Amino acid sequence: MTLLEFDHVSKIYSVRGAGQIKALDDVSFTLESGQTIGLVGQSGSGKSTIAKILTQLEVPSSGEVRLDGAPIPRRGAGLRSYRQQLRMVFQDPFASLNPYHSIRYHVERPLRLDDVVPASETEAEVRRLLERVRLDADAVIDRRPHELSGGQRQRVAIARALASRPRLLIADEPVSMLDVSLRLGVLNLLADLQREEGLGVLYITHDLATARHFSDEIMVLNQGRVVERGPADDVILRPQDPYTQELRAASPDPEKHFAAASGSGRTETLGGSL
Ligand SMILES: Nc1ncnc2c1ncn2[C@@H]1O[C@H](COP(=O)(O)OP(=O)(O)OP(=O)(O)O)[C@@H](O)[C@H]1O
Ligand SMILES: [Mg+2]
């Protein structure tokens, strides 16, 4: 079933003194429930603009975005429900958590705002979510973000995103600021959650190797246009579009394979290709 649909979406930014930048140029695609799409393309190709439109930081200049066939609501209960269904994991786990608040506060907030569970069950639900992202709830719940490692913080950000029981997760470079030794653990966690909860995921990345490994399909953006889309192996191993071929040639290790095991909590290490 189609969960998300971009229908001929363009986005033009007006920059004082610099004229207009066409960040998205007639972008159309669909994402099915439970599907992971890897969105790749070089810096400035428009990837984050797609995320910003989905999180309503920006509005399209033309075209329409639909969730479950309905345009993104602009206000009221419809908007609240949209925001509950679509959640974001940001690149920077340092900036996305408030340094003055405890981990409990961060995970509790969406539970309260979205009325996910009765108030008497909030504490148990916070703990369940922390365990779900494989954190030791007792050890982290009363700490503040700066007392955790980058990988632990990103897990808190994922727990917070899951709290509202969304159906679609937008992950914009979710591991690029983490130490390489932590990246695969966080990506495997996202993949496990995706499978277990049937989440749709838009995984935005520069990295072709993890895009291929963690996505069902890959979509390639070049200067705001979708130049290629298809099953992950086809796009990465047998790219048709010249730009994808260039991107592949410039990528350190697009054919890299990752150990499939996940959720074991063991430390995975990864070379410099990530
Ligand atoms: N708020 C803005 N105002 C003006 N121009 C913008 C704005 N946000 C993005 N742009 C421009 O739009 C284009 C697409 O930017 P976007 O952030 O979507 O790229 P990206 O693919 O996410 O890049 P990166 O890989 O570096 O994160 C770029 O040329 C960028 O400079
Ligand atoms: Mg970006």
Quick summary of this structure?
The chain is α/β, with parallel strands linked by helices and 274 residues long.
Describe what you observe in this structure.
This protein is of the alpha/beta class and 274 residues long. It has a domain of 191 residues: P-loop containing nucleotide triphosphate hydrolases (Rossmann fold), CATH 3.40.50. It is 36% helix and 25% strand. It has ten helices and ten strands. A six-stranded mixed sheet has the order 6-7-8-3-9-10, sandwiched between helices. Helix 7 links the parallel strand 7 and strand 8. The C terminus is likely disordered. The site of adenosine-5'-triphosphate has 13 residues, from strand 1, strand 2 and helix 1.
Comma- or semicolon-separated keywords:
about 270 residues; alpha/beta; Rossmann fold; six-stranded mixed β-sheet; four-stranded antiparallel β-sheet; 10 helices; binds adenosine-5'-triphosphate; binds magnesium ion
